[in-house]
């Protein structure tokens, strides 16, 4: 895909300084820009690169003033960083704007879909599935029976959406993600063997949710596992059965949340955090990476450590912990001196 400077300026409502007919077909960092690429400058620390870059077009702030001539066409906007982000979104929409049903693929006769469906090769859509408008299902994806997917949803290659799952509008499910797999439910018998408990609930994904590659969200034993509006889940996260995650909470990679735990809204949870089951985490909670959460957490707490302490207490404790060998040496010397005095 090629775009002229004049087209880009129109999208961004920017002003052109240079050649409006110059074309670009790729995006690049300003220090790595080559002919035919588009870049941007927002951080003053990178200003020197604008005079040496080979990029054909560079987006800059309107108040930016050149100190010497450049070889690139400038597009001046109010905020170059936000404008470049807008352009990335536009580019991604164009790149992913596929439609039609590729063959071989399968869609059950009992299933329905809205306008502008894309169904990639070797994808499978089961019985009684309802797909909204502008749904993109990439190759080798699986959509189980009785699944409902809203408008403007992307299911990338190899993702698996199990039966009865409900997905809202404007969601993204990345490659390898599994939504609706059985929860980890087993009960021991008199022989100390484990018998599987049927998992007959489902998963509900509300609007504007992003699910990262390799992330697994288990169906509920009864009822629903619920991911609320605007939640962003990174790659390789485990969400167990009957968990509920509140609106606009963000969770980083390799975090595990055990069954029936409720997480509030607007929380920020770092990578490799472990959260036990059947607890409640409040709103606006921040949990540092590699923490272990084994208790209920109140609104606005900031936690670190395993088991987690308040962020301030953890830092104070860590100061003493890293000095523990010296402290022990001092204690041993005092103990020897005390024993010597007792013998005397």
From TrEMBL:
Record-annotated active site: 241 (proton acceptor)
Pfam families: Hexapep, LpxD
Documented EC number(s): 2.3.1.191
Self-association and partners: Homotrimer.
Similarity remark: Belongs to the transferase hexapeptide repeat family. LpxD subfamily.
Listed HAMAP family: LpxD
Protein's name according to its UniProt entry: UDP-3-O-acylglucosamine N-acyltransferase
């Amino acid at each position: 895909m090629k775009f002229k400077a004049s087209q880009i300026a129109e999208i961004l409502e920017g002003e052109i300084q240079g050649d409006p007919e110059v074309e670009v077909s790729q995006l690049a960092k300003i220090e790595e820009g080559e002919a035919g690429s588009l870049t941007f400058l927002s951080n003053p620390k990178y200003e020197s690169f604008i005079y040496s870059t080979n990029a054909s077009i560079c987006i800059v702030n309107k108040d930016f003033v050149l100190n010497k001539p450049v070889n690139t066409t400038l597009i001046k906007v109010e905020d170059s960083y936000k404008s470049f982000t807008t352009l990335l979104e536009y580019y991604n929409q164009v790149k992913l704007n596929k439609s039609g049903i590729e063959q071989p693929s399968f869609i059950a006769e009992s299933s329905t879909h809205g306008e502008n469906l894309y169904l990639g090769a070797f994808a499978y859509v089961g019985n009684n599935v309802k797909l909204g408008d502008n749904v993109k299902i990439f190759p080798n994806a699986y959509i189980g029976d009785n699944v409902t997917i809203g408008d403007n949803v992307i299911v990338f290659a190899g993702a698996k959406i199990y039966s009865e799952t409900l997905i809202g509008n404007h969601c993204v499910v990345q490659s390898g993600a599994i939504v609706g797999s059985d929860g980890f439910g087993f009960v021991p018998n008199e022989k100390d063997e484990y018998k599987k408990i049927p998992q007959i609930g489902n998963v509900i994904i509300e609007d504007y949710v992003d699910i990262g590659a390799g992330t697994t969200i288990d169906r509920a034993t009864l009822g629903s596992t619920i991911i609320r509006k605007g939640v962003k889940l990174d790659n390789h996260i485990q969400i167990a059965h009957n968990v509920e995650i509140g609106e606009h909470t963000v969770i980083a990679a390799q975090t595990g949340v055990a069954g029936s735990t409720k997480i509030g809204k607007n929380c920020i949870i770092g990578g490799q955090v472990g959260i036990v089951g059947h607890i409640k985490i409040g709103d606006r909670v921040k949990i540092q990476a590699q923490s272990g959460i084994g208790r209920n957490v109140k609104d606005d707490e900031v936690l670190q450590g395993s088991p987690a302490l308040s962020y301030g207490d953890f830092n104070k404790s860590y100061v003493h912990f890293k000095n523990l060998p010296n402290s022990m040496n001092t204690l041993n010397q005092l103990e020897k001196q005390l024993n010597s005095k007792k013998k005397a």
